[in-house]
Amino acid sequence: MSQVAVQSRLPGDARPERAQETLGFAKFAVVGASGYAVNLAVFAFLTHRLAFEPATAAAAAFSVVAANNHLWNRIWTFREGPGSIGAQALRFAAVSLVGLGLNLLLLAGLLGAGLGRLGAQALAVALVLPVNYVGTRYWAFPEREDASTTERTAAYVRIAAWWAGSRALVLGAALVVQALGWPRKSWYPSIVHEPLALLRAWDGRWYLTVAQRGYFVVPRHQSDPAFFPLYPLLVNGLHALGLGRVGAGLLLANVGFMLGLIALYELARTWLPEPDARRTAIYAALFPFGFVFSMVYPESIVLAAMAFAGVFAYRGRWVPAGLAAAIAALGRPEGMFVALPLAVLAVRRWPQASAGERTRALWAAIAAPAALAGLAAYQRSTVGDALAFSHAQRMWGRWFSIGGIDRTLTELLHAPELHREWIYRDLTFLVGYLACLFLARRAGVPRSWVLAGALILLLPLWSGSVTSVARFGLLVPPVYAGLARLGRNRALDWSLRATAAALLCVGSATILMRWP
Amino acid sequence: MTTLARTVGPVVGALIAAGVLAGACFGVLLVALPRASEGQRIAARALVKLDRWRSQGALVRIDGRTLRATCTPVRRGAVVTYADGARILVRGRRVRALQPLEADGERLLATTAQVDPELVSAEALLGGSRSLYVAGLAVRLGVFGDPLVGLTRIDGVPAYVLRLGRDRPRIELLVSRSALEPLAVRYSSARLHGTSRLVAAPARRLASVGARGC
Question: pTM (2 decimals)?
Answer without folding.
Answer: 0.78
